[in-house]
Design brief:
The protein is mainly α. Helices cover about 85% and strands about 0% of the residues. The model has no long low-confidence stretch (mean pLDDT about 90).
Length: about 160
């Protein structure tokens, strides 16, 4: 028990001495200066860490802006290429439409020509048939002689003398 009291008293005396030293440090201002130096050191390290994070954030933001700008350039290039392709297609469509119009015009001209040729052919055939009819009539009249008509034999172009035998 004496041993345990001795240890307790010794321990309390050490604590008292330690607390007295601390109180003395606070009274002299050394402790405040040390605490302030520790605070400033921690503050500087935190400010450095914050600065590093801000620098990293600004670099990340710059990379985001750079990537966005490159993406916009790519999209603009694709849009320009697409617009050029559309213009080329529109030009091709217009030329094909013009070509179709020209072909239809040529077809209409050919149909008009064929129609006029048919009309002319019809007129020529009609005239030919009329002439053939006249030709037949005249041939029939020529072949009509004194034997089968009331015409005298002396008026026949192939006049043969008929003997009185």
């Amino acid at each position: 028990m004496i041993n345990s009291q001795f240890e307790t008293i010794s321990s309390l005396q050490y604590r008292i001495k330690s607390l007295q030293n601390q109180l003395e440090a606070f009274k002299s201002g050394d402790k405040y200066k040390k605490m302030e130096d520790d605070y400033k050191s921690m503050f500087r390290s935190e400010e450095a860490r914050i600065h590093n994070l801000e620098v990293e954030l600004s670099h990340a933001h710059a990379r985001v802006v750079d990537v966005r700008n490159k993406w916009c350039e790519v999209v603009d290039d694709l849009y320009t290429e697409h617009t050029k392709a559309l213009v080329a297609k529109d030009r091709e469509i217009k030329s094909l439409k013009d070509r179709i119009i020209e072909v239809e015009r040529q077809r209409d001209e050919a149909l008009d020509k064929v129609s006029s040729q048919r009309l002319e052919l019809y007129e020529v055939k009609t005239a030919l048939l009329e002439e053939q009819g006249k030709n037949l009539k005249l041939t029939a009249q020529i072949n009509h002689d004194y034997e089968n008509s009331s015409k005298p034999s002396s008026q026949s172009p192939n006049h043969k003398k008929i003997s009185n035998s």
